[in-house]
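Fold it.
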Amino acid sequence: MGKAPLAGVLVVVLGLLSAAVSADETEVLEQRVQELQRELEQAERALAEAKAARNEAEARAERAEAEMSEITPAPAKIKVGDLTIGGAIRANYAVGDYPEGNGATRATEDKGDFALDTFRINLDYLSGPWQAKAEYRWYPGYNMLHTGWVGYNFEDSSQVQVGVNRVPFGPGPYGISQSWFFDQHYYVGLSDDMDLGVKYSRPMGDWKWDLAYYYSDEGDYRGASHKSARYSYDVVNESGNGYKERNQFNLRGIYSVPDVAIATDLGFSLQFGELESAGPQDDGDRMAASVHMVNKWDNFTLASQLTWYEFDVDSAQPLGTDDRVQFGAYDFPSTAAAKAWIPGISLSYYQATPGIDWLDYVIPYAEYSVIVKDQSGFNDSELFILGAAWGRGGWYVYTDLAMSNGNEFIGGDAAFGDRLGANADDQWQTRFNINFGYYF
């Protein structure tokens, strides 16, 4: 019943009562009618605001779910109560314009290289507000924990995660990248980095905030190296008397610009942490700051990022220099410049393919990033990728043509291990890569 009919009824009732009650009583009744009308108007305004907020929240959730469905393979998972069990198996083919190399650069000039890439198991638990995730991966010759955290979802849509979780830095979980290789941020620990700590995330209007503290990196697991059998790039104590990451703080804010023709997310990321010495050198520290933006227009996504980072290390470290720092991942160590800028940009397009039986969608992309180093005599490290991701049911396939003059995954042995550091070779090399993944 609306306000007008209710007011009419109240007026009629008031008219009937006025003949039987005194003037004072009539005045009291009229005041009460006015109070009821004000309460009704306030209640209707509150209801309208609640509906608008709910509609906005539902719209945001639908957009997020649609975006995830666009980039995530459709799984066929196993449910056991509140626990979901899934995983993936991936194989990789690579061929490069360089002789077969060590570590991650595997490729040959003539026939290429085809091998098992990854087998992984995923566990997802959700019961009421409680949530947990775990992922363990096996690669040829080494294996490691990727994710392992327990979380709680609050009624205000905020969440806390405790354990090995993804560090909030950059515009999204994989930075600006859509490709199998990622961009250069990843190789200095500033994209898709997993560490051990606690992270709190909360949406506030058009903002989304992340605040985190990490006691250490995600740890090292089983492999041939001393400390580099891990998924994400961290400062590692490969020599036994080097540095290890400690006490890292992160803050990220992403603002979704309202009422614009091109959907735009503007953000910033800040990071500060310590480097604990296990040798004769002094303790060090590390810091990074980044501004980033994601623009979406129809099916196009443009992502851009500019980052500055610095590792303050003692020249008495095992490398014997304060212009490079030891990193490790995928069971092999490498060095990177201790101070640099990283600009990066990517453009991708999502195309659904309802007319093709064997394909659900394809995402072509182009990406460029470069590590611009402060140290005199160090060559910059560039990475350019043209590729596409192909999705069909549980299948997800990357096809990438990657060109670089400074990336450990692309190139021969000439400067292996220091392509992100001095990069003395500074030679452009090319790798064509196909990664076949089935997700269950």
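Confidence is low (pLDDT under 50) at residues 9-14, 16-21, 57-73.
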